[in-house]
Amino acid sequence: MNMKLIKTEEDYQAALARMEVIFDTPAGSDESDEADVLALIIDAYEQEHYAIDSPDPIEAIKVRMEELHLKQADLVDALGGKNRVSEVLNRKRKLTVEMIRNLSARLHLSVNTLVADYELSR
């Protein structure tokens, strides 16, 4: 096993190619150990060069609504009325602490996701 840090895009592509070859090797083999270490190295490179930002709270709510096949009317109890749901989802009103608690419980979203700052529309 000849391992090195991934420093360039070429190194990254080579690491991905090697991972493809050894991915399904039996557990406990030398190649399996190599795959475990290579996965850590690839992940570190991807975190630095291909990091994906978390969605803002409103986008997170919309994504979860889509995943759960919910409509705006399904959030009336959590946000305090049809108008409030519309105002929040259209970025006219900020989430309150009570709304965040309710949405976290209803949508199973992290409170940390919901308390992040976001811009209101004008």
UniProtKB/TrEMBL annotation:
Residues 61-114 form the HTH cro/C1-type domain. InterPro entries: Antitox_HigA, Cro/C1-type_HTH, Lambda_DNA-bd_dom_sf. Gene3D superfamilies: lambda repressor-like DNA-binding domains (1.10.260.40). SMART domains: HTH_XRE. This is Transcriptional regulator. It comes from Dyadobacter sandarakinus.
